[in-house]
Design goal:
Blueprint lengths: L2 H16 L1 E3 L23 E6 L5 E14 L2 E13 L5 E15 L2 E10 L2 E5 L2 E5 L2 E9 L4 H10 L8 H16 L2
Antiparallel strand pairs: 1-5, 2-3, 3-4, 4-5, 6-9, 7-8
Amino acid sequence: MTHRQRLSMLAVLVITALGFTFTSAGVAGAAPRARAAAPPVTALATPITGTSADGGSFAGTFTPTTFATRDGNVVATGVLAGTVRDASGDTVGTVSRTVSLPVSIAAATCQVLNLVLGPLHLDLLGLVIDLNQVHLLITAVQAPGNLLGNLLCAITHLLDGTPTAGGLAALLNAILALLGQG
């Protein structure tokens, strides 16, 4: 496995571990052209599909080139490329443009406890107890309405230090820069 492939896999794993998803609310907004965007890292291409009221469809990919903060939220700027088809399936046209999409954090999980007990053999005055290996894994799921999961995740990450939107965007840009190096 090459250095670039390892970095690509690392970035995909980090982004997946953070639980990022691209929401489709801002697909139509064009990104400002103040500075030249880095070339897209195709390993991070995310499939984008949609349909229109008249039966038309869009199928393509969004490939992030940079991350930034806008109004305290993280946004991904990148290349949206795909094909627009009408209701009969005929190609109407193709799209390739720079857009900004809001980035949201999907439901995250936190490992609360991972307890592994080896096999156990007890002989208590003639009462013999044999217990095979026990693996207890408790995971909390963080999402709206999951009160206990949210509380346990907050407690397990109490000393981690929550990154700000700007810090998170800077971290994601550093990962993109590493992936862009051949």
